[in-house]
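Quick question about two entries, pasted in order.
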Amino acid sequence: MHSAPARPNTGKLGKKRRKYKRRILTLDETARVLARLEEPNKLVIETCIATGARISEVLGLKWKHVNFKDGAIKIEQRVWQQDVGPPKSESSRRILGIGDLVERYRARAAEDGADAEALVFQQKRAPGKPLWDSGVRDALHKAAQAENCDFPGLGPHSFRRANITWRQQVGGSAIEASKIAGHSDLEMTGEYTFVAPERQNELTRAIQAKLSAAGSKAERAAGQTQLAPLPDGDAGPVGGRSLADVAPATGILQ
């Protein structure tokens, strides 16, 4: 008896299951949570929000990676389990604009007497060692709990998802969001993009408004189109002429 041939190994893995339901804080919730955070946790989280950087990348920043003139940070390394090493992938090496946070970084540099080779975010009790990401997460959860908006899965990475989502909402393209996030393809960016019901309704109403405007235009055009009157006494074909011959301009009878 011959055994059935083995099925070829396609190398395909099952669909990845998420541990928590995908969710991001609203802008209002985010603002309230940030107001409760203290430094340096607040600047760490705000950097994640502003740039979409991973917290490991933010904690791996050295002062030489901060460009005050251009208002940008350069991702060249990351902290993983308290070890400083190269970023997650080659596409993760990138330059990110920090917008209005540049003055906050400038003030922190002046306060710390920043050295080019020093980490931007260090432990107070152990200078030279990177800040613990667990401490940042704990502070974030406490602030969110105080504002009644905490949820399983809330963390610096959820703000990375928020950045990718909000960046596209304010007009950025998916390609721009992908490059800034350091994703290798747009499919991954799509996984990170969260379309909230509020945003869906905003887009839906925009479509409905355009459709309504088009409908009103069509109604006005229809109201302006009238049949040309027949000659007096004519109720139909006369002298070999049909209604179409009498009123060809109406465009109704073809």
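Here is the second entry:
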Amino acid sequence: MKLDYVFKDPELLKTALTHSSYANEHREKGVRNNERLEFLGDSVLGLICTRYIWTNFKSLPEGELTKLRAAIVCENSLYEYACKIDLGAELLLGKGEKAAGGARLPSVLSDAMEAVIAAVYLDGGIEEAERCIIDFIRDKAQEVVKSRATADYKTVLQEIVQKNHEEVLSYRLKSESGPDHDKRFEVEVLINSNVIAVGVGKSKKSAEQAAAKEALRLMGE
């Protein structure tokens, strides 16, 4: 496992890597599973992530910080990091779980990742836990913020308009010009037949996105 940390107490790491299926098969030996460590790791990860984004995204309001944190510490993100450090190769799984491909399951790997974070925290303290995962948090935060910067404006606009059930959102092609290899489309976005914005693009889809983006700007969103 490619984790940049050496445990003073290797038993902590072993427990963090022990799935409940393995512990059940070796119950007579008193083997413990990683579920309690997973519980602790969730909080440790949350604290480190919260401190990072609170410090580095000063312009974001509380609601947006909450959404950003949720995107960083979600199962899929933890799964990606677990794969990056090859965590699955070290997991202790029961025979049935191993045969079913448990070492590759996002739910299993993300849970184990949280347990490993807790193990580092218990063994070396919050500073070591932060050192081990801060690059992951930083990279994921940048990825999430970048993806939101190129958001689906049509979806955002639709969600806003849907809050008022009496309003109907639609798009209408206003004009189309240019040769086939260099088309120019102009699209209007309407609410209840009233044009609220116009967008231009090289395809109908891009023009609709541009129109939705302009509508959101005019609405102060």
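Reply: The two ends are 45 Å apart (CA to CA). The chain has a mean pLDDT of 92. Hope that helps.
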